[in-house]
Amino acid sequence: MTHLRANRYIESSALGLDLYRGVAELPIVSPHGHIDARLLVDPAARLDPPGRLFVTNDHYVARMLYSQGVPLERLGLQARDGGAVDIDDRAVWQLLADNAHLFALTPTGLWLRETLATVFGIDERLEPASAATIYARLEEQLATPAFAPRALLDRFRVECLSTTDAAGSSLAEHRAFAESEPGFRIRPTFRPDGVVALDPAGWRDALSELEAAAGREVGDYVTFVDVLAERRAAFKALGATATDHAATSADTTRLADREASRLFAAALAGTVTHADARRFEAHMLNEFARMSSDDGLVMQLHVGSLRDHNGPLAERFGRDIGADIPVATDWTRGLRPMLEAYGNDPRFALILFTLDESTYSRELAPLAGHYPAVLLGCPWWFHDSPAGIDRFLDRVVETAGIYNLAGFVDDARAHGAPRAARSLAAPHLRLACAEG
Predict the structure, then answer these.
(1) pLDDT, tens only, 316-373
(2) Is the dihedral of CA 160, 293, 280, 195 positive or negative?
(3) Residue 115 maps to which CATH number?
(4) Residues 86 and 128 in one domain
(5) Distance CA 87, CA 89 (A)
(6) Could you tell me if residue 429 is inside a domain?
(7) Dihedrals φ, ψ of 355, to 5°?
């Protein structure tokens, strides 16, 4: 049996533990996450069974197992080029237990242990011999009303939860939730990446969804910008406070309107080049900063990840299967056009996230330590761990200060994550202890 100590992520300090206890049971405000809003509309909805919940739907888990030669099909993922396959959920869970040792010293292993212990009350170590017993306990709990997604919001005392939604989302679930529970407890976040990247195969479909949501055709660049502004207003009317943008580059070079119109027309004609699509993305980041200064939505920018690096695997199984790899980022030159235009505007707020840790002290901390609009987002993806948070604080606080940091976000895709996140936020208190 594994018994977790209350101070397991806090350096040996009575003050640190006292500080943690003072905030550990406060309501959760989750400003950035990816939980599907559809789960929250129906009070009777249930989470997936253990194998799918912990393995199939978790690209952190899938990427590690795949790196050790486990085919994604055995993890429950469905290949696009084949028919539907019946998956033995218990076998998927057993596969995780058989390979639990692979996650030693990783954030994924830590999150798994935290979720089992703090959400499901299971302290027993996950290993081959305990897999069946733990599965049965998980399955039993998941079937109860107490583990319905809406019930978990109350149990975790989630005061506010932000989802991430495509620009073309109908927002039907958010409307339904707002009608059943006033106060915008569940808030959408505007993410336009699907329509801003002009060259992926799915761009036309994303544009069609945008047209359907807007109720009008988008046949030129001027209309495109107008429709995006309208969609932002629709998101804001349902409680949105932020936008979210993912890009490989931090380039924000603005194009002349005529050039932006030309590139959009080329995309409509199916002739846009990869290089021109990237120029259009950079331009649109600048344009979205202008919109944010007008409508007040906080702009979140995730840069430093080369998405779907394993192209053949993405072709077979779809996007977001764990093959996003950090890439070098030039924040200083890239953000300069945007920040010179809007970084001094008190109406504009920009939060920067990166997977490129080498930029923490060299670029990000100095930028946040100067521009009023800029805050630094916390470590992201596989840097989202006690050690990753320590590295971040060590490299940025001396230059940026505490008050230019945006705080901790759980970036959750799973309903168990917000509760487990309470314990993992503890390393942030290390600095507070030093200040005390």
Answers:
(1) 998 878 888 999 999 999 999 999 999 999 999 999 999 999 999 999 999 999 999 9
(2) positive
(3) 1.10.2020.10
(4) yes
(5) 6
(6) yes
(7) -95, -5
